[in-house]
Amino acid sequence: DRQPIIAIDGPAGAGKSTVARRVAAELSLVYLDTGAMYRAVTWLVLQQNIAIDDECAIAELANQCKIELTPSNDLQSPVRVWVNDIDVTQAIRTIEVTSQVSAIAAQSAVRQALVKQQQSWGKKGGLVAEGRDIGTHVFPDAEVKIFLTASVSERARRRQQDFKKQGQPEVSLEQLERDITERDWKDSTRTVSPLQKAADAIEVPTDGLSVAEIAAQIINSYQQQL
Ligand code: C5P
Fold it and tell me: Where in the cell is it found (predicted)?
């Protein structure tokens, strides 16, 4: 018998991380950022100078690397991410990793390795998992499935804020809109587990809503399910 699972999916920059962490904190559930795992593998690939299309070498890397996510209860500080005992919390958020991650996340062996890990972490439930395929593939039996959306311009604006907060170099809104559109396109047209709203997911358009308002909607859906 497992504890409930909340699945939160949606495109890049829809506010999934901030919202999912807040919901997890308020309901005392564990927060699982699956995007961080794809980013960690991408960081390793770049660091080891493996070609992005060398699916064989990348598959081996994805199967052998050790990924750790250390949840932080402090909503202001980032969840720490470790790969093979290296702290990559900041390194996985660079533009370089961000621009390559979709190509790596499209490789079926990579997905198999990471999904297996996610499902084993989620065996007992009691978590808020966030990504692109949580409601459709990772935890298809999740009690609550949320699909967060927002306009491209709103998402670019949020990303710019994130970069600013992290002290990263300034990126123009036009550039961010182009990057987001490209990543959405790659994530939703790939053959393996594309970004898709699960049939039983609740769509939550987030333009103009605060994090608190979005979190409240999700918590409300969760409480109705129980
Ligand atoms: O959510 P985040 O922007 O960190 O995700 C980075 C990338 O990882 C996404 O653009 C997508 O290519 C991939 N991803 C995925 N499946 C997930 C989570 C993330 O394919 N469940």
Answer: Cytoplasm
Q: Check: pTM over 0.90? Answer yes or no.
A: yes
Among 56, 35, 21, 14, which Cα is nearest to 138's?
35
Contact (CB, 8 A) for 55 and 109: yes
- Would the CB of 104 count as within 6 Å of ligand 1? no
- Tally of CB atoms within 10 A around 74: 8
Per residue in 141-194, pLDDT (tens digit) is 999 999 999 999 999 999 899 888 888 888 999 999 999 999 999 999 999 999
Beta bridge partners of 175: none
State whether the beta carbon of 12 lies less than 6 angstroms from ligand 1. Answer: yes
Residue 213, SS3? helix
ipTM: 0.98
Q: How far apart are CA 165 and CA 160, in angstroms?
A: 9
Ligand 1 center from residue 132 Cα (angstroms) = 6
Question: Residue 72: is it exposed, middle or buried by C-beta count within 10 angstroms (0-12/13-18/19+)?
Answer: middle
- Quick check: CB of 105 below 6 Å from ligand 1? yes
Residue located nearest, by CA, to atom 3 of ligand 1: 12
Q: Is 132 in the pocket of ligand 1 (CB under 6 A)?
A: yes
User: Whose C-alpha lies nearest to ligand 1, atom 8?
Assistant: 35
From 122, 99, 121, 131, select the one nearest 19 (Cα to Cα): 131
Q: The domain 5-225: what is its CATH number?
A: 3.40.50.300
Phi, psi angles (nearest 5°) of residue 19: -70, -45
